[in-house]
TrEMBL record:
Keyword Nuclease: yes
Record keywords: Cytoplasm, Endonuclease, Hydrolase, Metal-binding, Nuclease, Ribosome biogenesis, rRNA processing, Zinc
GO process terms (BP): rRNA processing
Cofactors, names only: Zn(2+)
InterPro entries noted in UniProt: MetalPrtase_cat_dom_sf_prd, YbeY, YbeY_CS
Name of the protein in question: Endoribonuclease YbeY
Assigned EC number: 3.1.-.-
Recorded name of the encoding gene: ybeY
Membership in a protein family: Belongs to the endoribonuclease YbeY family.
UniProt subcellular location: Cytoplasm
GO cellular component: cytoplasm
Enzyme superclass (EC): hydrolase
Stored Pfam families: YbeY
GO molecular function: metalloendopeptidase activity; RNA endonuclease activity; zinc ion binding
Amino acid sequence: MAILFFNEGIKFNLKPKNSYKKWLREIAAKEEYDIKDLNYIFCSDEYLHQINLEYLNHDTYTDIITFDNSDEEQQIEGDVFISVDRVKENAIKLNNTFEVEVQRVMSHGLLHLMGYRDKTKSEKELMRKMENSSITLFNQ
């Protein structure tokens, strides 16, 4: 049940790490999932753009890319790449604090690993509802 945090090409310190780990486990448990191996990699816009080009063939900037590595149902194994640059921009654009926006994208990646999608309007609405519920859970 490892949840690990990494930086790639940037300096970023997620504090307090244990609070985030506990929170992520609580989100998963609410949906009856177990976290087996979950990695969050915080990086720059350029780093994430290269991943988007190389692995997804998308020439766009994004705040998050999630790779699902799980083999078993209800078990989470994955890598979540987050652009700290994009999170900072989105926080300003959405009139959120940086911390809340970090929580939003972290929960977003985890929700993807639990099967939530965000392609259609109804999927996006449900995803946003689940993100907001996750943020509320963090602050309890």
